[in-house]
C-alpha cells in the first residue's frame, strides 16, 4: 500500500512540473485539429465516392 501512495505522490510532483499550455493556445490548436480533421474527412469521402462510382461502372459492363 505504501508503494502505491508513493507512486501517486511522485506522479503529482511530476504533474506540477509540466508546462501546461494557456487556454488561448489550447483553443487555437483544437480549432486547427478540427479543421484539418474535417478537410481530411471530406477528402476521404470524395475519394471513396469516386472509387465506388468507378467500381460500379466497371462491374456494370
From TrEMBL:
Q: Where in the cell is it found?
A: Cell membrane; Membrane
**Alphabetical GO biological process terms:** intracellular protein transmembrane transport; protein secretion; protein targeting; protein transport by the Sec complex
Q: Which residues cross the membrane?
A: 26-51
Supply the PROSITE patterns for this chain. SECE_SEC61G
Q: How does it sit in the membrane?
A: Single-pass membrane protein
A Gene Ontology cellular-component term: plasma membrane
Recorded hits in HAMAP family, A to Z, give: SecE (MF_00422)
Quaternary structure?
Component of the Sec protein translocase complex. Heterotrimer consisting of SecY, SecE and SecG subunits. The heterotrimers can form oligomers, although 1 heterotrimer is thought to be able to translocate proteins. Interacts with the ribosome. Interacts with SecDF, and other proteins may be involved. Interacts with SecA.
Q: What does this protein do?
A: Essential subunit of the Sec protein translocation channel SecYEG. Clamps together the 2 halves of SecY. May contact the channel plug during translocation.
PANTHER family for the chain: PROTEIN TRANSLOCASE SUBUNIT SECE (PTHR33910:SF1)
Q: What is this protein called?
A: Protein translocase subunit SecE
The gene that this protein is the product of is secE
Amino acid at each position: 500500500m505504501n508503494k502505491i501512495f508513493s507512486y501517486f505522490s511522485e506522479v503529482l510532483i511530476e504533474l506540477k512540473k509540466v508546462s501546461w499550455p494557456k487556454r488561448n493556445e489550447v483553443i487555437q490548436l483544437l480549432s486547427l485539429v478540427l479543421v484539418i480533421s474535417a478537410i481530411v474527412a471530406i477528402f476521404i469521402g470524395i475519394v471513396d465516392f469516386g472509387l465506388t462510382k468507378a467500381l460500379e461502372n466497371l462491374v456494370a459492363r
